[in-house]
Records
---
Amino acid sequence: MLKSSLNLNHFLICLASFFYAGTTLAQETILKIEIDPAVTFQTIEGFGASDAWTCQFAGLWPAEKKDKMADLLFSTQTTKAGQPLGIGLNMWRFSIGGGSAAQGKASDIGDEWRRQYAFLQLDGTYDWNAMPGQIWFLKAAQNRGVKQFVGFVNSPHVLFTKNGKAYSTDGNCNLNFDKLPQFADYLATTIKGIKKTTGIELNYLSPANEPQWKWNEHNQEGCPYNNTELTQLYRGVNTALVKNQLKTKIQIGEAGQLDYLYNNGNAKKGNQVDQFFNPASPNYVGNLSHIDQSISGHSYFTTSPEEKFIAVRKKTAEAVAQIKGLRYWMSEYCVLGDEVLKGEKRDLGMVTALFIARLIHHDLVISNATSWQWWLAVSAGDYKDGLVYIDKNKTDGQVYDSKLLWAFGNYSRFISAGSKRLQVKTIGADVPQVNVSSYLQNKKLVTVVVNPTENDLDLDIEVKGNKQRAVQTYVTSDQYNLSPYKQYRDTKQVGIPAKSVTTVISN
């Protein structure tokens, strides 16, 4: 009996050792990559978000609260311990409203948080104090170092629409083209007014947003256009910018779905890269003086299944590459929902953060996006659409950061404008769920690792022709918010925690 017990105990110890060894092995997954600084891809322009909907009220909150929001979004400062105060966005999208807020309930847009103010009043006069909340955030962004500003239009001002509303009644274009010159002059006047009152000159103007959708549900401002109508719009706005001697460039596209940028079968609203930038197209506008040589699309509805996720982004990159010198912006995204993740219910945790970090990776690495811009910088909704969240209160309340904010910061805080994306290759065994991208500016190498797995990872980075020293990692995970994590003397064994987004900075 005693002998049997000893044998059983020995067996149990061996069994425990086996499982323990297996667990240890799983936790010590090694991924070896090679980065080649000689093989470069797109030059990064920046990362941003928009002031839409919420900032018109959030900008009226007590100074301490709105400063906290602005710091989280724009700050590049750190605490004495090295903890970043914010994610350092360097692009800011300013919503040039259609005037529905001044109409109140008569706008037919039920939720007043989705109505938009404008400097142009319903009586045709201008009130440069009409958008104090948004202007506060515009200045706060500039004061914290933001240098690129985009004015974007969801609907033409109600004075220039067919139905006098900021949405389409019948799902067709709502711009009254007889009033296109006045609408274009209004946009130019708005740009000049913003500069006069704030000192900020909008670098870009996006005159139409997601033109493929019908925008007839009157729950937010919007206006449909086909490609021919967009061409008229772009030409009219270009004329106004020239007349007013403005430097602002017209940023076009804002496709509601990426496949509208290439040939998706919709002859009137698709194939936008070729339509607007091929000199043989009747809708060619690429030669207009104020057209920026970029085209933008939104990553909605293309994130699953995996085959579609990859294929759509490859086709986007291929379409843009057909036009010499054309750049691609991913200019809007939030979680509306797909097979993997639903848009409903606010999530301040890592599930959404890891989902978005992976999306950013694919948009940068497969689509060659030169900028990546989130939808609502500040949200008051119970939805996965914000970086910073606040209570739905016009004057005061609580401010909440999110893991998504900090995970976005793993890119935006450290990949500065002018950085070049580099070639990254896996050497040996691959860990397919883990995404790695790398960027170089001057002599600083920034590598971002998205590890959604349950296991910690040892990353072995070999930089072709260079030995890396003075390595610092920043981690966003359940425990950390873009926090300084560990320092290393080289890149041979860099620790990447499970379920994290980690930025590795080396010289």
---
Amino acid sequence: MSAAGTKTFAAVDLGASSGRVMTGRVGPDTLRLTEAHRFPNRPVHLPEGLRWDILGLYGEVLDGLRAAGPVDSLGIDSWAVDYGLLAADGSLLGNPVHYRDRRTEGVVEQVWATVPPDDLYRATGIQYAPFNTLYQLVAAQGTPQLASAGSLLLIPDLIAYWLTGEQGTELTNASTTQLIDARTGDWNRPLADRLGIDLALFAPLRRPGDPAGTLLPAVQERTGLPGPVPVTAVGSHDTASAVAAVPAGRRERFAYLCTGTWSLAGLELDAPVTTGASRSANFTNELGIDGTVRFLRNIMGLWLLQECMRTWELTDVTPLLADAARMPALRYVVDAAAPEFLAPGDMPGRIAAACRATDGPVPRTPGEITRCVLDSLALAHRRAIREAQHLADREVDVVHLVGGGARNALLCQLTADACGVPVVAGPAEAAALGNVLVQARAHGLPGDLAATRELIARTQPLSRYEPSGDPTAWEAAARRTEDARPLPA
């Protein structure tokens, strides 16, 4: 399959707005990533709500594996929190509900009436987000689908089940459900019992590097892959895989920014931080590769710009970025984490309304709105990284920005200016690289997490952005956005 000393792995990497199947050739001094197939991920508005087109995605995965050709293993990562319900015979009970669906409205207060938010945070270390799996499952209580379900699989585990016929629940993604104890790495059964959530629905836990089955004969026939082809559990939450691919040096004091539809900003720690101050700041403690903890905050991310472009019916971001670069800095800013930006629809109008509500100038042209989005994201990055350092008592000297945003030079420079430290941008396909490298370790290529990061730093193109501009301007802009609305009580 591969040249002597190297192996080839397929990474199925499903993001909230697009998916891809990549192949990675890995050896002691080799890491080459090739795109086999890329495809959009378009949710569907049905009368009952917003749903994922999971069958369409699975068909694209099969097409991607056919395009990838022979591989030594494959792994799957995706966005977090969403799931499919299966009947006792293993058949899917409807398309998975999208995390942006409105079914969890009012459920948070219902949950907190049973388990106060402080208790919930101490039990799991997971941030408040209305779409967490815990709230989704409480919202689903009493529905015919949940009542008839024999099992529940998170999205990457569902794809793996269709490929192999074997069920499992990978730990890094399971930690985002708000049902795992971040200290023990196991289900928090007392919490689930208090909320009436049946943990027996979940398949046994797997950890990154564990075997996850072998491609079924029918899948091999459909994809043309010579077998047997093992499926390997990776950091199946795409952020876990992306953080594993941060090209940090062994002694670097770094923060990371995983940028795409969402921006995930934080630190890699050895233990969770579950203090009251951390809960109030809405930081989460998700489990990562090799027992690490991803201490981070979710920020709305490039979703803001993606939705604007959908409204404007534009597909090429390059002219927008050129226009934005000519706009005055920090003239228009909003709180990029505000909940009114979560749902799809008329994002330019909502951004203008947010500026109007603070008596600030209102952006009107696409260039002005794009600059507002990028300045506001840089401010949100600044705030999250500074608060993470304070809460974890950890200083950083550099920010590693990975994911799709690494291609956005203006966003990278603005983030360096806002944070006041250098930003190292890249790799853009961090989730796929992390996916591939966890597989490589599981299949005999030696190296710890630090060694795999060194391999990425040696082999992947990276760009460095030094902070510039007037720090006092960022301080003033931060004060305009950091009178943050409080979390629900």
